[in-house]
Amino acid sequence: LQNKNSWYDADKAHHIHPFMDPKYFDKNHVRVITRGEGVYIWDAEGNKILDGMAGLWCVNVGYGRQELIDAANEQMKNLAYYNSFFQSSTPTQIELAEKLATITPQGIDHFFYANSGSEANDTVIRMARHYWSIQGKPTKRIFIGRHLGYHGSTLAATSLGGMKGMHDMGGSLLPEFEHIMQPHWYTLGAGLTPEEFGLKAAKALEDKILELGADNVAAFIGEPIQGAGGVIDPPSTYWPEIQRICKKYNILLVADEVICGFGRTGNWFGSDTYNIKPDMMPMAKGLSSGYIPIAAVGFSKEVYSVLAEGGHIAHGYTYSGHPVACAVALANINLMERDGIVEMVRDDTGPYFRKSLQQLADTHPIVGELRGAGLVAGLQLVKDKENKTIFTSEEGAGLICREHCIQHNLIMRMVDQAMVASPPLTITRDEIDEFTEKAKIGLDLTAQHFGL
Ligand code: PLP
């Protein structure tokens, strides 16, 4: 497979893509990405593209970081693989767990390794039910998630998430998963202030617990900011009220940090940004900046002490704590600490990014609102700004805008007629200017398309 044309043909002939309609390839060929450096990627046609999504919300330290490459190399040479089953550990597994305990929110201090966010969430489901069972409460099994929550693509993670399009594919979901409304003031909060709406959206959890009976509910799970659901940052009243309700009804609180973790919102974790005190915390993506698959679930002292009393933990993956993945994750966190990347997002590039996009949101005819925090953003596409009328999926403004952006060498993703962005956290002010200029061109051309 030496030349790009044979790649295009072979891809169509043999490769099944995630979240993709194969018929797309009847008209278009695949975009083959061959190289990355900093915030840029290059395709096989030689285009230099600004990666406004950091891959899939994950390449937090940018592409091509030698420290991570060296860490993988060294570990491969010393010990390419060993497991953490039957009372063994490897140095990088231990050192990463110790490091995670220093950067995760207070109280989280034990870590179980997995390979993806989906596996981390499967782990959460099994461990939470086990936790209640150990305490003589085996009926506490139901998980409450949210509409358009995304927690992964395994059967359990799909059931846990609130993505209707995913629920519709492949037949029955697992039982004992329920969903409540999104805390999205712009679309659901008519007549209420954001603060009033935050309380209303949290009350949906209380109503659901009362409907199901607290004795049947294991946990509530939410992303601090919903990512794949459209970058929905909740009003300030939402998380404190969710926290209070979980405590009142003795329900575990799980903060899915797969996107928000590792600096994305301007703090190490989204839980820090919203002052959430989770009982369990799945994380992945930014843990290794996507250089290698690794995930983890953080457990609070209290939850772990119950699990530890419960005897044999019958759960684990061959690659739980793969030593090479742990070495890369450790190098990634060390690099983030050394270069002050989280502080940079919090104090400099995050506010600059938001200011630039807010200007766009305030002035552009098809942008209804800016959402997000730090270096994760959503721009809602509307056809009537004053009346907050969102484009329909049939009108397809999001796809049109995404295409214009890519034609101008910018990757932004479209979610539910919102354009979302999550660039590498190493993005500079100049690169943010380039991002904003290109996003504006994409939006201008989309507005022109609709005569707006
Ligand atoms: N949780 C959240 C919040 C996510 O955004 C994702 C993936 O985008 C997942 C879980 C699933 O992670 P993975 O794709 O690594 O299984």
Task: Tell me the radius of gyration.
Answer: 22 Å
Specify the biggest β-sheet. 5 strands, antiparallel
Name the overall outline.
Answer: globular
CATH topology assignment of the largest domain: Aspartate Aminotransferase, domain 2
Helix content: 40-55%
Low-confidence parts, pLDDT < 50 over ≥5 residues? none
The CATH homology group name of the largest domain: Type I PLP-dependent aspartate aminotransferase-like (Major domain)
CATH architecture of the largest domain: 3-Layer(aba) Sandwich
Task: Tell me the number of helical segments per DSSP (H or I, 4 or more residues long).
Answer: 17
Number of domains: 2
Bound molecules: pyridoxal-5'-phosphate
Number of strands: 16
What number is the mean pLDDT? 97
Distance between the termini: 45 Å
The class by helix and strand makeup works out as alpha/beta
Q: Report the CATH C-level class of the largest domain.
A: Alpha Beta
What fraction of residues sit in β-strands? 15-25%
Cofactor: pyridoxal 5'-phosphate
InterPro entries: Aminotrans_3, Aminotrans_3_PPA_site, PyrdxlP-dep_Trfase, PyrdxlP-dep_Trfase_major, PyrdxlP-dep_Trfase_small
GO molecular function: transaminase activity
Organism: Kordiimonas pumila
